[in-house]
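> @MW can you paste both from yesterday?
MW: sure, first one:
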Amino acid sequence: MDIVSLQMVAAVTFFSSAPEAICFLKSKKLRTLMNTYWMLLCDAVHQANGFYCDQLMAVIFSSFLHITVTSYYFFMLLKTGTLFFTTTEVAWILLNICYVVLLLNSSTVVTNKADETGQTICKFINKSMDPELRNQLEGFLLQLPHHNARFSARGCFPLNNETLTAVAGAVTTYLVILIQFQTEPSST
């Protein structure tokens, strides 16, 4: 669980066991935690998307291009049998793949943690608690789908593990096409 989810769990647990006399303080503190959740997570993701959208698009495109071209040259070097250059190409391919995996996996983890918040709140709504607290949590739960905590590259595609699969498929497709053009006998 991330820090914000843990704070929400602690607040709900504390508020559900507190006496009725501090109901106003409970609802005010819970509202503060919910606002903090949106400020910390959703707004940070939106600001990061706005600030880094061009860089993310360039990095994904550049990595796609580098992996494709380097893999093609690796195939060409396998035909000539140069061991040093073949090893260098493999290192560059692995380096670019690791870079893309780290980038996309970290954004997937943030998105998954944001999605777990709704499940955590649902678990506590089902427990017996103060009706006003339950209403606030239900209102917060209704707002969750409207706040998108997802990273994207200029809104063109999401940055998640599915994008990694799509990039791998595109690299494979272009690599097969390049290799087919190279291995075809020239008809002149």
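MW: second:
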Amino acid sequence: MEIGFSSLRSILALTGTEDKCLTGNYMFKNKLILLMMFLMASTAYGRKLMKCELARELLWLGLSRTAIPDWVCLIEAESHMQTDLVTGPLSDGSSNLGLFQINSKIWCGVKEPGGDCNVKCSQLVTRGIKKSVNCAEIIFEKMGGFSYWAGWRQNCEVKQLPNLDKCFDKMPWKTTTIPNPFKKIIFPPNLSEVLS
């Protein structure tokens, strides 16, 4: 989300504070400009996810609810839930990228989509996690499950997985996956009976 100065001026005008904020108060203008620069810059980089936020996004992206504790544990072990983490260069010149610490030599292309995931490496270290999740699912299928990741073997395989039930308590649906918001959904006339 980028906020331009004219957008901010419009917001201030609507609230009746434009004259107070944008004229005569030089210190406020400087602080306002710094805040706008911070907001624009912060949208270009990764983000640190919280457990429930991550669990809900994974469900939203179609991962099975029963497997989400394993995925969250894996992501916590590999990247501390930081979407833009880059580890490397490693001894072979590659790097591990993003939430799942996906290796750049095998799974992605540096300048164009490539690797076994057919994705650009830069797409694995963004705020959005869809490309990373899709690639992790490919790795999961090709490499035989969670045991491909050392972080999962060391921190999750034989240990207590995080209890994420509270993350889904207030969700209005009762399925194991979240419906795609871009798909046209036709609700049955007896929806209340179906959900109860």
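> thanks! Residues 1-18, 34-43, 174-178 have pLDDT under 50 and may be disordered.
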